[in-house]
């Protein structure tokens, strides 16, 4: 199973196709993190220094199909750092005002009698 698949099919003018390939070429030239504008959205990729490529041309049925495929390994998954146990603190009591003339201990004693 693939981690992610993106496919887009649309009609382009020759100029639009050239612009799309130029943007891809610029991203490849820059390397590292690249963002490609793909019409309705942007795709972010991490492009390494070394790639594998495949060029395929098929002619038949009144059409020419040109496929340019670039492959590279994904970065190894980062190990999640172990969770450290933290000592939970007791929730602090809310300071509620005491009625005038009564202390908290007097209130507790009165509540126990009731």
What does this structure look like?
The protein has a domain at 14-71. The protein has 114 residues and is of the alpha+beta class. Strands 1-2 form a two-stranded antiparallel ribbon. The mean pLDDT is 76. It contains two helices and four strands.
The strand order across the widest sheet is: 1-2
- Helicity level: 10-25%
The number of strands is 4
Structural class: alpha+beta
Low-confidence stretches: none
Distance between the termini: 68 Å
Shape by Cα distribution? globular
pLDDT averaged over residues: 76
List keywords for this structure.
114 residues; single chain; 24% helix; 4 strands; alpha+beta; two-stranded antiparallel ribbon; 2 helices; two-stranded antiparallel sheet
Secondary structure blueprint with pairings:
Elements: H1 14-30, E1 32-37, E2 42-47, E3 52-60, E4 63-71, H2 104-113
Antiparallel strand pairs: 1-2, 3-4
Compact description:
This protein has 114 residues and is of the alpha+beta class.
């Amino acid at each position: 199973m693939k981690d992610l698949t993106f496919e887009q099919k649309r009609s382009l003018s020759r100029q639009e196709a050239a612009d799309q390939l130029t943007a891809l070429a610029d991203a490849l030239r820059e390397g590292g993190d690249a963002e490609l504008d793909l019409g309705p959205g942007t795709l972010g990729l991490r492009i390494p220094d070394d790639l594998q490529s495949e060029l395929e041309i098929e002619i038949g049925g009144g059409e020419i199909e040109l496929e340019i495929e670039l492959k590279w390994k994904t970065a190894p998954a980062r190990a999640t750092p172990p969770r450290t146990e933290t000592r939970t603190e007791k929730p602090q009591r809310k300071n509620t005002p005491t009625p005038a003339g009564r202390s908290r201990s007097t209130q507790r004693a009165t509540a126990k009698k009731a």
